[in-house]
Write a structure and sequence with these properties.
The chain has about 200 residues and is of the alpha/beta class. It contains five helices and eight strands. The chain has a single domain, classed as Rossmann fold. It has an eight-stranded mixed sheet with strand order 1-2-4-3-5-6-7-8, with helices on both faces. α1 runs parallel beside α5 and α2 crosses α3. The protein is globular, with a radius of gyration of 15 Å.
């Protein structure tokens, strides 16, 4: 595995970013956004790691930055606005090295809010929202090709709220029975759904 930790320059400073590159026979570039920075969210979150490992397994370059104020990333939490700008800058930088490859966007919880905003501005192959915090942030409609994955025991974002948002957007929805917000003991099931959805 070609694993690199970069510090990518954005409008607010530099963002610590981990890149896992399969090198041979690349099929795409997956940008993965972590949960809330003020509640322990980072690139090392287990759901984020699972998404990165799955993308890599499928032959994608997996890119996961630390948002503002997390790890070695500069800046302060900006309620999703600045984080969206940073992700846009990161995508621009990374894609200058992988021109022509399709872009996949994935976000978990707060990260799903960021990525749904990025998806409005960046041409992408697929958008994946994991336990999107639709009850905490103002989400706009997403493309019908979007896949949402949610646990029926989610204690942070009620399943009914997530389903209602998915239905309004015409998005695909997958429920993992017994899964809480952080998919404790359900990461293998999560990975299997993502792998099936993203298989090239």
């Amino acid at each position: 595995m070609n694993r690199s930790k970069l510090r990518i320059k954005t409008s607010t400073g530099v963002m610590e970013t981990l890149v896992n590159d399969p090198v041979d026979n690349r099929h795409g570039v997956a940008f993965i956004a972590h949960p809330h920075p003020l509640h322990g969210g980072s690139m090392d979150n287990k759901v984020v790691q699972t998404l990165a490992q799955t993308a890599y397994k499928l032959g994608m370059v997996a890119v996961r930055p630390n948002f503002r104020g997390v790890g070695q990333s500069d800046g302060l939490y900006d309620k999703g606005q600045g984080e969206t700008e940073d992700m846009m800058d990161i995508i621009k930088f990374v894609m200058s090295h992988y021109e022509g490859l399709p872009i996949y966007l994935a976000g978990f919880s707060f990260g799903a809010y960021v990525q749904h905003r990025v998806a409005q501005q960046v041409a992408h192959e697929r958008l994946l929202l994991i336990a999107p915090a639709v009850n905490l942030y103002e989400f706009q409609p997403v493309p019908s090709s979007t896949l949402m994955i949610h646990g029926d025991k989610d204690e942070v974002v009620p399943l009914a709220d997530a389903k209602r948002f998915a239905e309004a957007s015409g998005a695909n929805f997958s429920t993992i029975i017994g899964a809480d917000h952080f998919f404790h003991k359900k990461l293998k099931e999560l990975a299997a759904i993502v792998e099936d959805a993203w298989r090239y």
